[in-house]
Amino acid sequence: MSQKLPAKNFFLLICITKQLLFFNFVIHFSNKDMIETRIGDFEEVVMLILGILPKGEAYAFRIAKEFSAQTGREVSIGAIHSTLDRLDKKGFVTSELIHSAGKRGERQKRIFAVTALGKRILKESLDFKVGLWKQHPAFAGRFNFS
Fold this sequence. Notes:
- This protein is mainly alpha-helical and 146 residues long.
- It contains six helices and two strands.
- It has helices at 7-16, 23-28, 41-52, 60-71, 77-90, 116-135; strands at 93-98, 109-114.
- The N and C termini lie far apart (58 Å).
């Protein structure tokens, strides 16, 4: 039984079949191998909060607490964990497991930080949104965006 290739994969296969150098790439290429480089609003806010928190304080519980303080909305630890996992898979954040030197029996903490790629994605998101704000007739010229 033959498997049907998605249209864009089939087009890619046709375009580079003559170039055997890329044959291995074509075989291994699939939609699931592509890394998502866009971020949603919630992911963007979580990444910005990571940058706001002092070094060593960017762990899930503290991020959720800061999210609530900044937005006035509660967020579950589960939502923070799943978002951080997604951002980690995209390469936008990194984490390090640290052992607490505090109270006996205190749990380890996974401390997160925004990567260089994550910072670039945040900058692109800012530039895109500022560009839209500048074009909006109701707001154009009212804000001084640098």
